[in-house]
Amino acid sequence: MTWEERIADAWSADVTDEERIALIDAVAAERPEDDAAALFERAGARDSAGLEEEAEPLYRRALEAGLDEDRRVQAVIQLASTIRNLGKLEESLALLRAEYEKGRDAPLRDATAAFYALALASSGDAVRAASIALQALAPHLPRYMRSVTGYAQELV
User: Are 66 and 32 in contact (CB under 8 A)?
Assistant: First the structure.
């Protein structure tokens, strides 16, 4: 079984948060201490368990170490969500805005929009948050896509 498969198994295992952290840490330990993917998985396990203060530095180290594009975007979203919960709202907004502004074809665009909308709502900018969320939703609507997109843009 590959490293990636063992990580996926740890995530899907029916275990407590503490047990999941231990499982992921054990698999991550098979890689060098500064391995970006291992750091990212360790951060995610802690984040998922509500241990944001432990997750934050691991996300930062993973990003500094250089993640593949898929994990990089996930790490940015997850770090931004984590630091929003830790009261670092301005930094969270800046990270999410930068990802969001990469355009419609950027990886995980809708997930980025969702977390950007949450951060905007936390900042008190509920109208901008609604606009971002509606623009992300509009392409998935079987009808009224143009109308919803137009109304969402008019909000701001």
Answer: no
